[in-house]
Amino acid sequence: MLYIVEMDVNIPETWNEDKLNDYIVREKETSQKWQKSGKWVYLWRVAGQYSNVSVLDVESPDELHTIISSLPLFPYMKIKVKSLCKHPNAVREAMI
Amino acid sequence: MLYIVEMDVNIPETWNEDKLNDYIVREKETSQKWQKSGKWVYLWRVAGQYSNVSVLDVESPDELHTIISSLPLFPYMKIKVKSLCKHPNAVREAMI
Amino acid sequence: MLYIVEMDVNIPETWNEDKLNDYIVREKETSQKWQKSGKWVYLWRVAGQYSNVSVLDVESPDELHTIISSLPLFPYMKIKVKSLCKHPNAVREAMI
Amino acid sequence: MLYIVEMDVNIPETWNEDKLNDYIVREKETSQKWQKSGKWVYLWRVAGQYSNVSVLDVESPDELHTIISSLPLFPYMKIKVKSLCKHPNAVREAMI
Amino acid sequence: MLYIVEMDVNIPETWNEDKLNDYIVREKETSQKWQKSGKWVYLWRVAGQYSNVSVLDVESPDELHTIISSLPLFPYMKIKVKSLCKHPNAVREAMI
Amino acid sequence: MLYIVEMDVNIPETWNEDKLNDYIVREKETSQKWQKSGKWVYLWRVAGQYSNVSVLDVESPDELHTIISSLPLFPYMKIKVKSLCKHPNAVREAMI
Amino acid sequence: MLYIVEMDVNIPETWNEDKLNDYIVREKETSQKWQKSGKWVYLWRVAGQYSNVSVLDVESPDELHTIISSLPLFPYMKIKVKSLCKHPNAVREAMI
Amino acid sequence: MLYIVEMDVNIPETWNEDKLNDYIVREKETSQKWQKSGKWVYLWRVAGQYSNVSVLDVESPDELHTIISSLPLFPYMKIKVKSLCKHPNAVREAMI
Amino acid sequence: MLYIVEMDVNIPETWNEDKLNDYIVREKETSQKWQKSGKWVYLWRVAGQYSNVSVLDVESPDELHTIISSLPLFPYMKIKVKSLCKHPNAVREAMI
Amino acid sequence: MLYIVEMDVNIPETWNEDKLNDYIVREKETSQKWQKSGKWVYLWRVAGQYSNVSVLDVESPDELHTIISSLPLFPYMKIKVKSLCKHPNAVREAMI
């Protein structure tokens, strides 16, 4: 099942550069692990904003939550989630 | 270049069923013509809502507008548009 | 899988009483058919408002959409959908 | 009487991991105490977000407030409360 | 139990004066019947706006809904409801 | 003249327990002083939220401001104020 | 006592030109009657919008409501009201 | 002096095609008259939406209002206006 | 030219009383300097809120910005600005 | 391709003056480098607010993001981006 997820990052102002860099490195590792698994299908940057839009193809809502909440920056992001289904006008057979 | 577009449909309350059906048929034709062209890559329904989320891969902002504004229901939709670019953590080489 | 759905009804002002009553009767029939199937688990009224909160237990996002969009008043409601999963602090084994 | 409650958690950015873990442990204890009492009927996670949706069945608005405000993270949550009543289309005799 | 209720009236633009006056007369009758019963304790106008703020003292959320939804203008109002309880700093013994 | 005032408290996250308790004690004293004067007529807790709804009966807008701004937590609250007047449908002669 | 009032006009789309002009003429008459009385002190247009900002100096909230609700377009405006008082930094002795 | 103006068009649903086309023709004439005068400097379409963003260089707020309110669709648009001034980091000498 | 400006003050929670008092003193001095110049015409407190509404009569948008941004609390306020012009129904010849 | 970008600056309250000044200097350098390149066409201040409106003429969404995210204050700004295209009523041949 497919979800579209928007994440807006709010870096705490009290973090120094070392702490921020540590988070950025770990965020990348975690995100790429899930992308390589095939479950995190797309990861796009919203042009000009500290936000991303992602498409995930998961087994269940619980798996979606496991993936998103494993991101080190999870407590510092404002997240919107939409559950997707097949559109009657869609030409494409597969969802992805 | 990639855009993600959300469309919320507001059917005018004064339309009778014939008028509505006529619009729905023409909406489907227009949307499928653009999907078959390869420019309208994904068309998903938001589960439980009269809304859709779409991904378009176009040559320019003008082409995006040509496609979206050619939909018969265009004047009756609330539309949000996000311009996408490559995310530094993305594993996938291509955007789509 | 579990969804929580909020529906706010906006009766078109041009409807006469007959048309409204016809919709209300058919809305009740459709809603009760799904409740009896066991998929629409709870249907609550928000006290003092023309709104309801529902819990649905469905096979897939597509099934959720089939149920919600079968309601005669579907085009005249503002709908919010949340996909639910297990909370780590939940005592109850089952979701419902 | 039934209430549906949404809680969005905002962990203060100045907390270190020890302080956060202490709160999480106490939050779980408090929440589970009320669940076991039968008054906190459902506790669900919103998939992909640091939020929950809960259903409480209490004696009075004062009892609702006693329960919610006993949570250690109460001052750090944005909370929405809806008072529920019987829907005329509901099939189920009991509210829960 | 106490509720505070805000109601914003949106008169449908297609109503003629006769229809509007008929609604206003019946709205007044219904509202005053409930005020005289003692359940609708206060009815205030928000100065300069087509809105009111009311305090109701009812037996249950169902009774609140019965009262509010009996108003002829109920389908044409945007309504916000807050369930109240005792404040720890309140001096007054009774709620009203 | 009557005002209805909603206050949402946002305790600064950097405050320790001593500082918070000091504020809570002084907040109670100030609030009760005004209640006993008869000018702060009602003080209710919104069930399940760190908010209150109050009704004040004052001589002037300046007096309202004097009362509200004397609260120690005034700089840490989000406050909404509505000026009330007599509703044409009100049965009760007095405003309070 | 001073109020600042913002009014956004929403002309019903079903009105023909005659009806609209009739309203505009009567709106002007009513508004000017109150301005000449000295109670409606300022009436400004927000540049580029179908909105106005007004300052009224009235005896009571009831008088404010009498004035605003006497406008023929009152049911077709979205209105925001702020009750004003003396600012501690104000140099001017009088409020107006 | 410079203003940036966003206009969102809401075509009334009751208009037939002839009426709509008449408005579109007159809207174009009016808009182009002001562009040719040099006062309406830029007129851009927001890609994928029935909205535009414009930059106007006018003598006064009154002139801005004269221009915007002369548009036939003025009563059917939601308009946001920002007054601009020189930015300390701007390299360009002239504002336009 | 006339502007109406709303300012909501958000005192940083980390400031101690000395720092806050220093800002309040300098804010008053700056604000009164501009009031005495005749450019800052009105400064009103919104009753019950840490907000003010002001009317400024300036030569240009740049002068407006010079005045507002000279306030010591400028970086800690949420500010809304409306550019005003003459209303066709205004009786008063002068704007102020 | 053209973008219009609004940036609202939120200076972290914990920064001292030296740190703030360092950021302001580097912000100016970065912004002016891009303006001189011809890609950042306009940079305007919104009168009376700590915000700016900019017009950028770039090769791609990726280039837009490179420019905006190179600003030192990028993590401390709330940014809105609109992708622009040619308006059918535009008189001007070029977009800028």
Summarize the entry for a quick read:
Chain A has 96 residues and is of the alpha+beta class. Chain A has helices spanning 17-36, 61-69; strands at 2-9, 40-46, 51-57, 77-86. A 4-stranded antiparallel β-sheet of chain A has the order 2-3-1-4.
Would you give an account of this structure?
Helix content of chain A is 30%, strand content 33%. By secondary structure, the first copy, chain A, is of the alpha+beta class. A 4-stranded antiparallel β-sheet of chain A has the order 2-3-1-4. In chain A, strand 2 (40-46) and strand 3 (51-57) form a beta hairpin. The longest helix of chain A is centred in the first third of the chain and has 20 residues, at 17-36. The N and C termini of chain A lie close together (10 Å). The model of chain A has no long low-confidence stretch (mean pLDDT 95). The interface between A and B is medium-sized, with 30 and 30 residues.
